[in-house]
Amino acid sequence: MSPPSVRVNANIRQRPDGILVCAHCLTELPGTALTVLEQLPRREAAPSAAGPHICANPEAYVDADVVFRQYYCPGCWTAFQSEVVPRLPHGR
Fold first, then answer.
1. Based on the structure, what is the number of domains in the chain?
2. Contact between 14 and 58 (Cβ < 8 Å)
3. Are the beta carbons of 49 and 58 closer than 8 angstroms?
């Protein structure tokens, strides 16, 4: 029997060998617990894509250009994190 993995969050577990895996499909994930999100597939869309509870006109409240961003498991495409955040500069 192998030692259990450690929960990083609801979607990511860390095996005893240090490798991160999806908690849903066990696909190996790149990076460390601190860097995994920036290495996962992601989608960016208008803030309104987050649903009706998000202000459709963020420019009324903030000076930055904002986007709705979701990070996904590359194996099962479970959304790991969803956020409305300032748009990243090109190349990031």
1. 1
2. no
3. no
* Token duo for residue 36: 């995994």
In a domain, 91, yes or no: no
C-alpha 77/C-alpha 91 separation (Å) is 23
Mean pLDDT value across the chain: 89
Q: What's the whole-model pTM score?
A: 0.81
Residue 13: Cβ within 10 Å count: 19
Instruction: Specify whether the CB–CB gap between 68 and 54 falls below 8 A.
Output: yes
In a domain, 51, yes or no: yes
Residue 7: name the closest of 35, 31, 33 by CA: 33
